[in-house]
């Protein structure tokens, strides 16, 4: 990909459920009670789809393994009421509906096993899972030199070994895959480099990593990481830290792996500087739906982004990156839409 070319996709953001087995110290997405919990209905999904406009991607996210959460009884009853027995089974149904509505699904449901990935592969153009960090949760460090993260103390799914295993299984199944780092949750600069090296190692083995997100932690009211014991507000990582991580990613990752920076979590001036340091992708943007993980941070519109990144060229892509389109890393289920939307280079076909 040319250095002056920046990519992005247009999506709608569908949170399937906010019930999650993890209790991360920075998260406002997870339901803490039955009153807060939800399972998005097919009717609600279709109502969002009707207003999708020129969007090509349906981004499905969910809490991880809600069947094993503290709200498992509520979730099991709810999922059975829609004729399914698991989050994966129900999300697969929603993916099929998305395809019928002209949308290419991209799922991020947390840690998944090989059989679950295989089941979802046929109805997804690409999939993802944030590695976040290779630093272990607090209480699980195996050596004296390891520092466990307090933010992940009550999050069994944030064990780096489990997340790396999911990413590796996706490689074995030839799933175009998105992963990334969450910067500023207590990890060290050395942890960040180790995380990038771990991603690089898996990509060298399977060739399936399409992008690595460098996502800054954003403190949110009501979370463990909003205030520390001294009642001082936890601050997000400095811009200098973000620059260092993007520099490191540029040095560590193979050139074919895109470095993504979320445009709704970075100021226009900072965004342009990160692009100059090697960032080449802006991820999915939605002018129709919230970023349910960071609801306080709306996405910029396409035209605004074009002004911000000028003179760099901004090109729209599909949820699977151009090289995977050309290599035909997609299932028969999504093939008609990929062929309909992609141009000969694998980018989104320009419309008049």
Question: Please, could you describe this protein's structure?
Answer:
This protein has a single domain, classed as TIM Barrel, CATH 3.20.20. The mean pLDDT is 93. Strand 4, helix 5 and strand 5 form a beta-alpha-beta unit. By secondary structure, the protein is of the alpha/beta class. Helix 5 runs parallel beside helix 6. It starts with a strand and ends in an 11-residue tail after the last helix. Strands 1, 2, 3, 4, 5, 6, 7, 8 and 9 form a 9-stranded parallel sheet that branches. The chain is built from 11 helices and 9 strands.
Provide a compact summary of the structure.
With 352 residues, the protein is an alpha/beta fold. The chain contains eleven helices and nine strands.
Count of the separate structural domains: 1
The CATH topology label is: TIM Barrel
Number of helices: 11
Overall average residue pLDDT:
93
Strand content: 5-15%
Radius of gyration of CA atoms, rounded to a whole number: 19 Å
| Name of the top-level CATH class | Alpha Beta
Give the tags:
352 residues, alpha/beta, TIM Barrel, nine-stranded parallel β-sheet, 11 helices, 9 strands, 33% helix, 14% strand
Task: Please render the helix and strand layout as text.
Layout (H helix, E strand, L loop, with lengths): L4 E11 L26 H8 L7 E5 L10 H10 L5 H14 L3 E5 L5 H8 L4 E3 L31 H13 L4 E7 L5 H18 L2 E8 L22 H14 L5 E3 L7 H9 L4 E5 L16 H8 L3 E4 L5 H6 L7 H7 L11
Parallel strand pairs: 1-2, 1-8, 1-9, 2-3, 3-4, 4-5, 5-6, 6-7
Helix pairs in contact: 5-6, 6-7
